[in-house]
Amino acid sequence: MKTKLRTLIKDLNAKNAPPDGWSPKDRVQDKPEAGKVYALTGGPGSRCIANGNSWKESEVSPEQQDPGEAT
User: Fold this and answer.
1) Which of 9, 18, 32, 57 could join 53 via S-S bond, C-beta 3.0 to 4.6 A?
2) 0.85 surpassed by pTM
3) Which residues does residue 38 pair with via DSSP β-bridges, in sequence order?
């Protein structure tokens, strides 16, 4: 049986919602900031967006950046 993604998401949200429902404060406010460098991809276990980490967790410090890279 094929389940549409929309139906699956609705079911998962219903099963995992807090008892009083979701509120706007439950939404994660994690957005990239201009001028910062982030790791989008990386190896297993590395802190990057592709591995499910937040933008803040995926931020690359200046020491970690390759001096030859364009920013």
Assistant:
1) 57
2) no
3) 59
What single DSSP character describes residue 24? G
Per-residue pLDDT for the chain (71 aa), expressed as one digit of tens each? 677 999 998 898 888 888 888 788 877 788 999 999 999 999 999 999 999 999 999 999 988 887 776 55
Q: For residues 8 and 6, give the distance between their C-alpha atoms in angstroms, rounded to a whole number.
A: 5
Q: What is the DSSP letter of 61?
A: P
Q: Is residue 56 part of a domain?
A: yes
Residue ranges of alpha helices (H) inside the chain are 5-16
Q: Which structural domain, as residue segments, surrounds residue 61?
A: 33-66
